Each structure stands twice: as C-alpha cells, then as structure tokens.
Amino acid sequence: MPAPRPVSSSVSLLALAPVLPVVVLHDAADAVPLARALVAGGLPAIEVTLRTPAALDGVRAIAGEVPDAVVGVGTVIRPEQVAASVDAGARFLVSPGWTDALLAAMAASGVPYLPGVSTTSEVVALLERGVREMKFFPAQAAGGTAYLKSLAGPLPQARFCPTGGIGPDTAPDYLSLPNVGCVGGSWMVPSDAVAGRDWGRVERLARAAAGLSAGGTCR
C-alpha cells in the first residue's frame, strides 16, 4: 500500500473539511476502523489527541493503513512531542496553547500546525511571528462566537479552528463567521460508540458533520 502523500506546510488545515474530529483513543486497535468510518463519512482530517498511551500507536496505524485519512496529533504541549508525533506519521499538529519553544519546534517540523490561543494578546503575538491560522480553545468557555466576532474587525488576518464545547447545534454559528475556517469537536466519535465499536454510527454522525456549514445548510 503506498504511503499517504504529505500535507504541505503551505496547505490550509482549515480548508480540509468543515469539521475536524477530535479523537481520544484508549485502544490502538480501534484506530484504523474509526478512521475508516470518519473518512467514509466525509471527514478525512482526524486529530488524535495525546491524552492516552495508545495515541501514537493509533496514529502510526492510521498513517500506515488508511491512506485517505489526513491524521494529525493534538494536545501537543512539549517540544519533544513534536518529533515523536511526526515520526509516528502525523501530518499536522495541534496544541491547546503555545510557548516560544513549542512554536519553534512545530515550525521546524515540516508539517502544518495550529497553535492554540484564547486571548487577543496571544493572537497578536502569533501574527507577529507570521502565524495566521490558529486553534481557538476552549472556544465556548473563552467567549464563543461573540469573542471571535469581536476579533474579526481589528485582526481580520487571523483565522481560527475553534474547539471546546462545540456540538452540531452550535457549529453552524461558528462556521458563519468570516474568521473561522473549520471547527473541532468530538460529537461524531461519542465514547459509547467507540467503546461498542459501532463504526456505522460513527460514519453516520461524520456524514452529518461533513454537511454542516454556516446556517446549518449542506455545502
């Protein structure tokens, strides 16, 4: 099976799909069927979070066996995790926040990355460093759509993937904003469906999520 093509660091992660699934893997054996269900549902970009010991093994399995998936690693909080993630096959990186050391490691990785922000000062600091695409986290707790709408006027060059507390009912409100390219969420990978290996349910939820856009209409 041919290796998946790398995602260029110049490619916008925000344009891959309207929704970026945020996946927590407790068993690496679930990684491949879960990824196949998400891809079949129309969500090729998949963020596997570094919250469990199974995460990198799962990323490695997806990278090797699901070539249509664009698998990335989230919850990257230390520079050394960057190299480990890329070595496992991560094609993009996502962090909940950033430091200069972490940002430098992600920038040097050769893959696209979304550093996390929750304040205007953090956004300005990233713009100063040439970063224009960011994760807004935790979205709902940090001010939600009202906060992002307020940023669009003075900082129109910044674009976001809001994540945290977003579901299918609120996602269209975020997607309607001019500075939002996609949203992150886990509602299409509910823990009971993953635990029960109900991949058909995951595919159905992914298909519904892939059809979301501003105003709740299908793209």
UniProtKB/TrEMBL annotation:
Molecular function GO labels: (R,S)-4-hydroxy-2-oxoglutarate aldolase activity; 2-dehydro-3-deoxy-phosphogluconate aldolase activity
Pathway(s) where this gene product acts: Carbohydrate acid metabolism; 2-dehydro-3-deoxy-D-gluconate degradation; D-glyceraldehyde 3-phosphate and pyruvate from 2-dehydro-3-deoxy-D-gluconate: step 2/2
Catalytic activity: 2-dehydro-3-deoxy-6-phospho-D-gluconate = D-glyceraldehyde 3-phosphate + pyruvate
InterPro entries, alphabetized: Aldlse_KDPG_KHG, Aldolase_TIM, KDPG/KHG_AS_1, KDPG/KHG_AS_2
Family membership: Belongs to the KHG/KDPG aldolase family.
The protein's assembly and partners: Homotrimer.
The protein's name in its UniProt record: 2-dehydro-3-deoxy-phosphogluconate aldolase
Highest classification ranks of the organism: Bacteria, Bacillati, Actinomycetota, Actinomycetes, Kitasatosporales
